[in-house]
Specification:
The protein has 246 residues and is of the alpha/beta class. The chain has a single domain, classed as Isochorismatase-like (Rossmann fold). It has helices at 19-22, 33-49, 119-125, 138-151, 169-177, 184-189, 197-205, 216-225, and strands at 10-15, 53-59, 104-108, 130-136, 156-165. The protein has a five-stranded parallel sheet with strand order 3-2-1-4-5, sandwiched between helices. Helix 2 crosses helix 7 and helix 5 (169-177) packs parallel to helix 8. It is globular. InterPro entries: Isochorismatase-like_dom, Isochorismatase-like_sf.
Length: 246
């Protein structure tokens, strides 16, 4: 498929949509991550239709945890069943998400997709200037990745709020909806959050909250995030996140 003009210079980053992060019972499962799988699948489908570069960002670790953060090395004992061990079942993408020939896979070992990786140089070589981010989890890997992207001067960085999740809806909605922050990085992040407005609205249509009777505040926040004319006066806040893995 020839790259469509409206997808030129844009990449979709799918962060950590792996079985260990999504499967209930896993020691690093992010509660709420299962509910966004259909939305992430839709985002990938839309990206491919528009000729947008799809980048799969995953965690894969040494079985002894020698490449994991120091404070998490106690979780590793040389077993394939330890979290996100390279080649393990838990390190695989969740069912329904498939890497195709034109996609790019990037392995990271820290929160940010940019830290200690070749992501920035790869995106520069592909002439990517705009990023759209989906996956888990919002206050950790999503936040760190998008803040780094802002500091690296990408023209726009967009988080699709209903295709991202955190350990609780309160943490997720709080981080993506509060406009009272004084964080400069967060303010800059929101200067172009309207990118993919129409596509995000399609995802939102079928969105289901973490609970069957999700709060009205959550619903309103999600709708607000998809306003087409957000400016630097509307900002994300840095939330006190959970102590989850990624």
């Amino acid at each position: 498929m020839a790259m469509e003009e409206n997808g030129k210079n844009t990449a979709l980053l799918i962060i950590d949509m792996q079985k260990d992060f999504v499967t209930p019972g896993s020691p690093v499962c992010v509660h709420g991550s299962q509910s966004i799988v259909p939305s992430v699948i839709k985002a990938v489908d839309i990206a491919r239709l528009r000729g947008i570069l799809v980048v799969w960002v995953v965690r894969e670790h040494d079985s002894l945890g020698r490449d994991v953060e120091l404070f998490r090395r106690h979780m590793y004992s040389g077993k394939k069943t330890d979290p996100l061990v390279k080649g393990s079942k838990g390190a695989e993408l969740v069912d329904g998400l498939v890497i195709t020939g034109n996609d790019y896979k990037l392995v990271k070992t820290r929160f940010s997709a940019f830290f200690g990786t070749n992501l920035h140089s790869f995106l520069q070589a592909a002439d990517i200037k705009k990023l759209v981010v989906v996956g888990v989890q919002t206050p950790n890997c999503i936040r760190q990745t998008v803040f780094d992207a802002v500091e690296l001067d990408y023209q726009s960085v967009t988080v699709i709020v209903d295709a991202t999740a955190a350990g609780s809806p309160e943490v997720h909605v709080g981080w993506t909806s509060d406009g009272t922050t004084t964080s400069i990085s967060a303010q800059r992040l929101c200067t172009a959050i309207h990118l993919w407005y129409k596509e995000a609205a399609l995802v939102l249509k079928d969105y289901k909250p973490w609970t069957s009777n999700g709060s009205n505040r959550q619903h309103q926040c999600l709708k607000t995030m998809h306003r087409p004319l957000l400016t630097k006066d509307y900002a994300l806040r840095t939330c006190r996140g959970t102590n989850n893995y990624h």
